[in-house]
Structures are given as C-alpha cells and as structure tokens.
Amino acid sequence: MATILVTGGAGFIGSHLVDRLWRDGATVRVLDDLSSGLLENLSGPREFERERFRFTLGSVTDRDALDEAAAGCDWIFHLAAVVGVRRVVEEPVEAQRNLLHGTEAVLECARRNGCGVLLASSSEVYGKGLRIPFHEDDDLRLGSPAHARWGYGAAKAMGEFLAKSYADTYDVPVIVTRFFNTVGPRQNGRFGMVVPRFVRQALGGAPITVYGDGAQQRCFTDVRDTVECLVRLWQCPEAIGEIVNIGNDREITILDLARRVLGACDSDSEIRCVAYDQVFPAGFEDVRRRVPDVTRLEQLTGYRPARDLDETLGWIVADARARLDRAASVTGSRA
Ligand SMILES: NC(=O)c1ccc[n+]([C@@H]2O[C@H](COP(=O)([O-])OP(=O)(O)OC[C@H]3O[C@@H](n4cnc5c(N)ncnc54)[C@H](O)[C@@H]3O)[C@@H](O)[C@H]2O)c1
Questions:
Q1: Ligand 1, atom 28, residue with closest C-alpha
Q2: Between vectors from CA 182 to CA 307 and to CA 203, what angle results, nearest 5°?
C-alpha cells in the first residue's frame, strides 16, 4: 500500500482525506503548521495505529521539515494553504508568500524525492469566469491587481503553471484539482467561510449576515464527495497531467442557503443583508455565479458529486451541536 504525505492534513479537507486514506490502508504522513488546522481533527489515525501515521509540525516552506515528512512517500497531496479570499485581502503579503512559496517547495521536494503531486487549486482561478459552467480549458479572467481579492486566484493559478512546468521539465507526475466550495464538519469558521459562519450565527440566535443582496449563486460540495474524487483521481493513471474541476454542479443562491441553514438548525434568527463595503475594502468585486463543468471529472473517475445539500447541512449542524455540548460540559466541570 502507498505512503502518502498530506500537507495541510490537520485542516478541514485534509483531515477528512487523511481519515479516508488511512482507513483504506495507506501509510499517511501529515505536515501542518496548525495555522488554521487543529490536531484534534486527526484524532482517529493518531489514536488507533501509530505505525501507519506520523504528524510533523512545520511549514511546507521549511525544506528540512518537508524532506523529513516526505521521506519514503510515493505521493504528496498538497493542500496546505492560507485559504480564502478574505485572508488574502487581510494579510496579502503573508498569504501570497505562503501560497507561492509553499507550492514551489512541494514541487521541488517531489522532484528530489521522486514522488507525484496532487495539487489543491481553486475555482477562484476562473476569476469572473467567461461562461457557465467553468471548463478546465477556459481562459482565466481574473480582475485587476488593484483589487487584492484576485491575489488568491492568481496565486493558485501560478501554482498550477509551476506544476505544469515541473511536470514538463522534470517529469514530476502532477494532477491539478480545482475545488468548488467544499463544505462539511471541521471547516474553520474563523476566516469568514460562509457555511460555518451561518451555522454559528443560527445556533447562537444571532442574525445571519448575508453579504451583498444574497442573489449570488454558488455550488456546495460535500467533503465526502471531494475526498472520493481525490482518491479516485489519484488512482487513475489518465489523470496525471490533467487539470480537473471537483464540485457539485447544483446551484443555490446565498439567500436560499441562509434559509436552509435556518431550517437545519431549527432557528428563527433573522437574515440580514450587509453591503460588501462593510465587510471588504471598497470596490470589492464578487462573482455572481460559479458552476463547475464536471464532464472531465466524471470521465476520469466515473463519479459525480451529487450529495444533497440538506443532508450535508444536517451533518454539519449535528457536529456543531456536539462541539458546543462538549465545550459547555468542559466549562461546567471547571465551574
Ligand atoms: N474549502 C474549500 O471550499 C476550498 C475551495 C477551493 C480550494 N480549497 C483548497 O483546499 C485546500 C484545503 O483547504 P481547507 O478548506 O481544508 O482549509 P484549511 O484552512 O482547513 O486547511 C489548510 C491547512 O493548511 C495548513 N497550513 C497553512 N499554511 C501552511 C504551511 N505553510 N505549512 C503547513 N501547513 C499549512 C493549515 O494549518 C490548515 O490545516 C487549500 O489548498 C485550499 O486553497 C478549498
């Protein structure tokens, strides 16, 4: 069975991927600096079988830490990143350095150690998009560098170019995946991600704050579907050298999402629309629609993410409630 390094494996998607790979019998290494991930996300593999699991605390930009974690690995799933538009707007230098240098360091490490790389990119690379649905071979239409928000998509796109260059120049096997809004338990709400933010507000009885008019549409993918696609792509030799969208292509407005979260939480919180310039710097540009073309994904893997959003929201809310109960019992036992 393979030995795999998951960078960012203590994060949201990474930890679900680690659970899956480890359950399938792989030997799994994780390198994470815990800047947004949590060690508790890895409690399954850490507790049960230490021989097939090792955690290294460190940054992907630290060559020694990366080499130590990657030693003996066949593949690196590179998920470590400062995630989301909001963080790139708030901490542009740190976030872009992390994205650019992290991906370069991982590709260089793969070249030195003779392993393959599955790169986690983002639907943000499509920018404003040319046409719906977004196809992997479309030209990219990013906004002006005058607006920091496009820096996230640009840095992810640069990572894709670099991956292609390493594949062409050094024969590093590379698969590039573009994720579209993946959701599920363990997603960190600290950086404004929409679903954990709405769930926290609804369970806390606070108003649900929708940015803009709420008519913007998104597609939400259950993390179990995302992980299934990642594993299938990695097992598919024809996926090497490809760029592949990973997402559910069913659209929903953000207002409708807010209503469904209220339903899942059994909450009567009010829904409040907030202008973008109250949350982001002036001139913030949002993308109205973002839909993946999943033809290539389906052709390569025979799989199409289609889990029902209400089922996923029910899972997220049950997990959030269990966390709140645990936190309350710890606070109660200390009182
Ligand atoms: N969640 C989504 O909807 C989504 C959408 C598009 C792309 N992605 C991509 O998927 C990947 C995983 O995202 P996520 O949602 O799980 O976010 P996350 O923040 O939960 O996971 C990122 C992990 O990377 C770690 N990390 C950050 N910088 C690091 C560094 N320099 N060295 C080592 N570890 C570092 C963090 O501590 C965290 O555990 C990212 O590359 C992200 O850009 C996610």
A1: 81
A2: 85
| 127 belongs to a structural domain | yes
How many A from CA of 121 to the centre of ligand 1?
10
Q: Which domain holds residue 244?
A: 3-180+222-248+291-306
Number of domains in the chain: 1
The closest-lying atom of ligand 1 relative to the alpha carbon of residue 36 is 37
Its pTM stands at 0.96
CA of 289 to the centre of ligand 1 (A): 23
Cα of 287 from ligand 1 centre, angstroms:
21
Q: Which CATH number fits the domain that encloses residue 21?
A: 3.40.50.720
Q: Hey, whose CA ends up nearest to atom 26 of ligand 1?
A: 80
Q: Which residues line ligand 1 (CB under 6 A)?
A: 7-8, 10-14, 31-37, 59-61, 79-83, 98, 102, 120, 122, 179, 181-182, 188
DSSP state of 134: B
Residues designated catalytic: 152
The dihedrals phi and psi of 211, each to the nearest 5 degrees, come to -80, 135
| Number of residues that this document lists for the chain | 335
CB 219 within 8 A of CB 251: yes
Cα separation values, 225 from 20, 183, 211, 308, Å: 12, 10, 27, 11
Q: Which of 6, 12, 134, 218 for mutating ligand 1's site (highest number of atoms within 8 Å of CB)?
A: 12
Residue pLDDT tens, the chain, 335 long: 899 999 999 999 999 999 999 999 999 999 999 999 999 999 876 665 677 999 999 999 999 999 999 999 999 999 999 987 788 888 899 999 999 999 999 999 999 999 999 999 999 999 999 899 999 999 999 999 998 889 999 999 999 999 999 999 999 999 999 999 999 999 988 887 999 999 999 999 999 999 999 999 999 999 999 999 999 999 999 999 999 999 999 999 999 999 999 999 999 999 999 998 888 877 788 889 999 999 999 999 999 999 999 999 999 999 999 988 988 888 777 66
Ligand 1 atom closest to Cα of residue 221: 3
Q: In angstroms, what CA-CA distances link 238 with 20, 168, 231, 293? A: 22, 16, 13, 18
